Amino acid sequence: MTLHPTIANVTDRIRERSRERRAAYLARIEAAAGRGPHRATLSCGNLAHGFAACSASDKSALRDGVAPNLGIVNAYNDMLSAHQPLERFPFLLKNAARSVGATAQVAGGVPAMCDGVTQGRSGMELSLFSREVIALSTAVALSHDMFDAALYLGVCDKIVPGLLIGALSFGHLPAIFVPAGPMTSGLPNDEKSRVRQRYAEGKATREELLEAEAQSYHGPGTCTFYGTANSNQMLMELMGLHLPGASFVNPDTVLRDALTAQAAKRAAAITALGDDYRPVGRIIDERAIVNGVVGLHATGGSTNHLLHLIAIAAAAGIDLRLEDFDDLSSVVPLLARVYPNGSADVNHFHAAGGLGFLIAELLDAGLLHGDVETIAGHGLARYRVEARVNDEREIEYVPAAGRSGDPSVLRPVADPFRADGGLRVLRGPLGTAAIKVSAVPEDRFVIEAPCRVFTEQQDVKKAFERGELDRDVVVVVRFQGPRANGMPELHQLTPTLSVLQKRGHRVALVTDGRMSGASGQVPAAIHVSPEAAAGGAIARLRDGDVVRVDARAGTLDVLVPDAEWKARETAVIDRSASHVGMGRELFEVFRNTAATAEAGGGIFMGGV
């Protein structure tokens, strides 16, 4: 199938503007690769330190230096359901490596925090910056120069992007991402949402809410809604860093374990020691980045990836911008309805055909670059399959189903849920923002109403409880960007704003903070840039100003006379109280140097 002209044009545009940065990046990883297996250059003392604790057989292999040695970078902890299954993975990976004559060592660990635990808490202000810490930790883990390839064990929000940014700094090494899979389905999402809204209205008790949440988040594995964690898994498959079919297989199953073992075997096969060398810095090119953006639009994925994909691209010397997301969204149809953009969860999505079906549909429609390199081999067509396990517990692949198993969850390109990806970039006097409208009713695409300005999401809830928001209103929550307080997610706003909308009011949110993929049916202009703490225009707003959020025209306006608007002072608040406690004082250098949300919100964005 001929590549869609918009996909081709956007890719060419990215390639051209990235030419110098990408060339410098490739030269750097080429120089690193050219020195051969690095542990062979270590002194005897250095190398002895590197294998001192190994088994006798592994020690012998490492002394000889002719077999691949795989580094395992692990985000395991047993507090988080998504990462708890990773406890067993190093054992599985090491045994699998030995079975093909290779060795594997746990190179290091990286932190893994959960936005679901820290929502509305001080710890959430470390969340976005934890991505940078994970990237740094990955670099430390690989800095021993002992490895020919790396296996990355991580799942959730900032963990996978941080691991990939770190992996790209060692772009001469092959990289395979090894997912843990989603937990089995629990309380239906519609029921969970209903209880949350009843609690927001004071109609459900805390005990009822806790029971609903516990029935929803009930066991090992990734949360089953389609937020950033599951969007991560989709991206790794669309970008060719997972084994085909690996993303959404439940933990602690025969198939999951077989896929985990196969990842080690495949990593051993694609090092520079063999004849199928596949370094991650070559796999992640402009085409792979565009494929990731297309997958994000086609599945209604998390808006956090407006930050993460830009940062990932930069780490590979690629200049990805918001207008690229916007242009690609205009031609990529929405093929999936997974909560919060529907009632189904990722297990239903996977059962309906999952990524194998989706990739096949997008390839056949010319909406993906098929001629890419992946860890599985040349061509994304290798991913239009379903993974199964045979009686010998070996992976077998069968062609993806030719039709969706549930059209209420997953549809073909010829019959999409929407003709576009539902993402818009908004621009106007208030700055640049993003809005995800894949779940927003058509009659709410344009909201014009007086605004009410807040600096804390908790104050929105208090105003709601006092009845002050029971009207048409644009809720503005500012001083929530990277430089203000680390850009926390503001999910506590969702039930409150949803209640107001269900009451018939015309409601929108405008914020320089994050909302992930969970803003649902309420129009939310998020990631406003420049942020208030950097003197952005959002800091000029006053209660009662009429704000217009227009997802159709792509504008974010304030209807205040120009002379009055230009004469206004920019509000300044003292955020020092939120810069200490819960470890926040350690992140001052991150807040002071963070890029804008439009540029990925990170502290190292140069890529080279």
Helix content percent band: 25-40%
Q: How much strand?
A: 5-15%
Shape: globular
- Terminal CA distance reads 35 Å
Please compute the radius of gyration using only Cα atoms. 24 Å
Structural class: alpha/beta
Can you list the strand order of the major beta sheet? Answer: 9-10-14-13-12-11-15-16
The counted number of beta strands is 16
Q: pLDDT average, as an integer?
A: 93
Tally of separate helices = 23
Please give the domain count. Answer: 2
- What is the makeup of the main sheet? 8 strands, mixed
Low-confidence parts, pLDDT < 50 over ≥5 residues? none
Explain this structure.
By secondary structure, the protein is an alpha/beta fold. The protein folds into two domains: 5-184 and 219-399, no CATH class; 423-599, 3-Layer(bba) Sandwich (Glucose Oxidase, domain 1), CATH 3.50.30. Helices cover 37% and strands 13% of the residues. Strands 9-10-14-13-12-11-15-16 form an eight-stranded mixed beta sheet. Strands 2-1-3-4 form a four-stranded parallel beta sheet, sandwiched between helices. A hairpin with a 5-residue loop joins β7 (385-389) and β8 (395-399). α11 crosses α14 (286-299). The longest helix is centred in the first third of the chain and has 16 residues, at 127-142. The two termini are 35 Å apart. 57% of the residues are buried. The model has no long low-confidence stretch (mean pLDDT 93). Belongs to the IlvD/Edd family. Pfam families: ILV_EDD_C, ILVD_EDD_N. Catalyzes the dehydration of 6-phospho-D-gluconate to 2-dehydro-3-deoxy-6-phospho-D-gluconate. Its cofactor is [4Fe-4S] cluster. This is Phosphogluconate dehydratase.
